[in-house]
What we know:
Layout (H helix, E strand, L loop, with lengths): L25 H16 L4 E3 L9 E6 L11 E14 L2 E5 L7 E7 L2 E7 L5 E7 H14 L4 H4 L7 E2 L13
Antiparallel strand pairs: 1-2, 2-3, 3-6, 4-5, 5-8, 6-7
The protein binds nickel (II) ion.
Amino acid sequence: MPILDILLEGDPRLRQKAIRVRSVDDSLRKLAADMFETMHDAPGVGLAGPQVGVMRRLIVVHVPADHGDDGEPETTLALVNPEIVRSNGRVLGYEGCLSIPGWTGEVPRSETITVKAIDLDNKPVRIKAKGWVARVLQHEIDHLDGILFLDRVEDKSTIQPLPDEAEEAVAVEA
Ligand code: NI
């Protein structure tokens, strides 16, 4: 399976709205597998179709257990046409993005969310998420609408370059 090229900020495709998937087929499953491999290679915890130049509403997420010290189990998701149908609370946290390498900033996100989607078997799924998984899902779903995390930073003074040694410490590079 090939590692795909990750588009960088400035590429107009990162600003476009991705289109809904009608039905999951083998080519989409293959794309999801390639996206997982690309995300793990980067490394990152989430990746959205537009980041690899595919303007379709597909995201992959892999958050290791206790990634944010929040006691959450390991979470692996591939979601098609994901949609946030419920959200509660507001929490600030630092994010990074594989399309904006080397930068971080503090982003307000909903604390808990419910996401409706279809899985790679074309089955409807509902995911309840909190902690880092909720943050990564919101970050990835934003990518499907052409939104980058820097757009959501409210306190611009929190935007800062990431020292190399801190790369691993950043909670979300997605
Ligand atoms: Ni990102």
